[in-house]
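Archive entry. Fields below.
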Amino acid sequence: QIQGTIFDLDGVLTDTAEYHYQAWQRLADEEGIPFNRQANEALRGVSRRASLMLIIGNRRYSDAEIEEMMERKNQYYVELIKNISSQDLLPGAVSLLDQLRQAQIKIAIGSGSKNARTVIERLGIADKVDAIADGYSVQKPKPAPDLFLFAAQQLGLAPSLCVVFEDATAGIAAGLAAGMWTVGLGPGERVGAAHVVLPNLAGIKWVDIRAKLTR
Ligand code: B16
Ligand code: MG
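PREDICTED_STRUCTURE:
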C-alpha cells in the first residue's frame, strides 16, 4: 500500500543539473582545477560541500577558502536559475503529479538543494506539492535517510507507505536506508539498486508503477 510519494528535484522533475555543472565548471576554471562534464557525473545528487570536496581532490584549502568557494559557486548557480519557468519541467512530470493528486496520493519534494524552494516556485508546481524537504531541513545529506524521513514525517506517513523517485545513486541509497520503495530514473549502472528502474518520467502511468511496486 502506497500513500505518499517523495520526488527528488534536480534530475527528476527538472534538469537543473546542467546549471549546477556550469556553475562548478566556472569555479573550477577560476581556481585552475581540471574539471569537465565527465567528472561532473560523479556529482549527481551530491551535496554542495561533498561536490566541492570531489572537485578539489587532494588540493589543500583552508576552511575559509572552502566556504568562499561554496558561496561563489552558489552565486553562479543562483544567477543561472533566474530564468527557470514551467518550460523547464521534464517530460511527464506534471502529468504524474496530477495523476497522484487524482488518486489522493500525497506528494513531497525531497531535494538536497538549498535553492529547492526557489526552483519549485519558478517551475510553477508549488501548489501541486503537499510538503517540501530541502537543503535546510536536515543536517546529513543523501545517502543518509534523514531528508526522506523528514519528508515522510511532513506528510504524516510511515516510511513503508512512501515511494521515492530519484535519479542519483546516493538518492536511491537514501530511499532504501529510509525503508521506502524506490523508483530509479536513469541507467541501471546508476540507479539499478532501486525496486523499479525507468529511463525517465515520460509517459509514466501511476497505476503501472503502483502495480510494479506492490507485486
Ligand atoms: P545547492 P537534488 C541536489 O539536488 C543537486 O543534485 C546537487 O547537484 C546539488 O549539489 C545539491 O542539490 C545541493 O544544492 O547547492 O543548491 O544547495 O538532486 O537533491 O534535488
Ligand atoms: Mg537528483
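CURATOR_NOTE: The chain has a mean pLDDT of 97.
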